[in-house]
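Hi C.,

You asked whether I'd gotten around to modeling the 156-residue construct. I have! Everything is below, sequence then structure, no commentary in between.
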Amino acid sequence: MTPYYELRHLVGFEETTVVGNVYFSNYLRWQGKCREMFLREHAPEVLADFGTDVILFTVKVECEFVAELALFDELSIRMRLVELTQTQIEFGFDYVRLHEDGGEELVARGGQRVACVSGQGAARPIKVPSALRDALAPYAADPASRARNSAAVRNG
C-alpha cells in the first residue's frame, strides 16, 4: 500500500453546478489545498521562507475523471510523491468518495509538477529545500522511489 497524505473534504453548494455535479476546476483547487495543508503540517519551515527564498511554481497540472461527485459527497484527496529531482517535485492525487458504510470509490486521478524557484529577483531554479525533501520522503509512490528519495535527502 502506497503511503499518502490525506485531506478530507465535504462538497458544498459553491462547488457544484445547478444540476448538482462538481465543477471540474474544483479538483485542481483541491490539489493546491492538499499541497498547502501538507506544507503546513509537515514542512512549516518551508512556509516561513515562502515567497522570499522559495516559490513552488506549478509547471504542469492534470486530472482524469472516472465518476462524478455531487453535493455533500465526502471526499478524501490523497497525495503522494511520484518523483523528486534536484529542483522539481511531481505529486500524484487520488480523489476517493467515502461512503457511509465505509466503502470507497475512486472518482478521479490527478497530477501536479512544481519547480522550486527563488523568490528573490529574477525567477531561477533552486534545489528543493531539504526540509521539504525530508517531509516528502515517506510519501513516495513506490519502495524504490522512497529509497532513492531518502538517499537524495542524505546527499543533499
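If it helps when you're writing up: The radius of gyration is 17 Å.

Thanks,
B.
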